[in-house]
Write a structure and sequence with these properties.
Bound molecules: coenzyme A
Number of helices: 5
Shape: globular
Oligomer: single chain
CATH architecture: 3-Layer(aba) Sandwich
Structural class: alpha+beta
Order of helices and strands: EEHHHEEEHEHEE
Strand content: 35-45%
Largest sheet: 8 strands, mixed
Distance between the termini: 22 Å
Mean pLDDT: 97
């Protein structure tokens, strides 16, 4: 599945994205906000991720579907639907390289990805968990019609610290 807009292209990853992917995601400003526990993130980590991710493009009902956000011909970020239960629900997650922040890109990426997910997997609910210190991500979701359902106390753990998370969902 490929979605083209003026700002970005959403497309399946390729093994040849490993270098760009590792370079872009290996930034604490990104990883501090993700469940991902790997930092620093190396090309070998990207290769492991890609080997796991690529087969899912060929499966009718994959457990997760992760797409690259391509800007100027290179990977600039990622968006994924995880824990997909066809006919029911999935979790959305995403990141974007800081150089592109604040231009409305992720708001649009989430719009396109949720529309695709609701249709393709006949979902009733897409939810997201956002670390309590990440207001930008919560705003991205709220602009897309996600509603705050609660705060999950100490639900995430990062560098030995427990983090409260917002739970937001969009329901059809
Ligand atoms: C969160 C993230 C995806 C946002 O991407 P983006 O393309 O900059 O998002 P957008 O430009 O579409 O929208 C961000 C909104 O949040 C607002 N915002 C950003 N940081 C903020 C802050 N610290 N306080 C308040 N608002 C903030 C922006 O002003 C913008 O709202 P506006 O359009 O009304 O001005 C990006 O910062 C990122 O990748 N962060 C690291 C990884 C991450 O947090 N992933 C999500 C995990 S749940």
């Amino acid at each position: 599945m490929i979605i083209k807009t003026k700002q970005f292209v959403l497309r399946p990853y390729r093994m040849s994205d490993a270098d760009d992917l590792a370079k872009k995601i290996n930034d604490w400003r990104i990883i501090r906000n993700l469940a991902l526990q790997i930092f620093p993130y190396k090309k070998s980590d990207a290769l492991i991720f890609l080997k796991k991710t690529l087969p899912n493009y060929k499966i009718k009902n994959p457990g997760s579907l992760v797409l690259g956000i391509e800007i100027d011909g290179k990977i600039a970020g990622s968006v994924g639907l995880h824990k997909i239960e066809p006919g029911h629900q999935a979790e959305i997650g995403y990141w974007l390289a800081p150089v592109y922040w604040g231009n409305g890109i992720m708001t649009n990426v989430v719009k396109k990805t949720t529309a695709y997910g609701f249709k393709k997997f006949k979902l009733k609910r897409i939810y997201a968990k956002v670390f309590i210190y990440n207001p930008g991500s919560k705003i991205v979701l709220e602009k897309n019609g996600f509603k705050l359902e609660g705060i999950l106390k100490k639900a995430a753990k990062k560098k030995g610290k427990f983090i409260d998370e917002y739970l937001l969902a969009k329901v059809k």
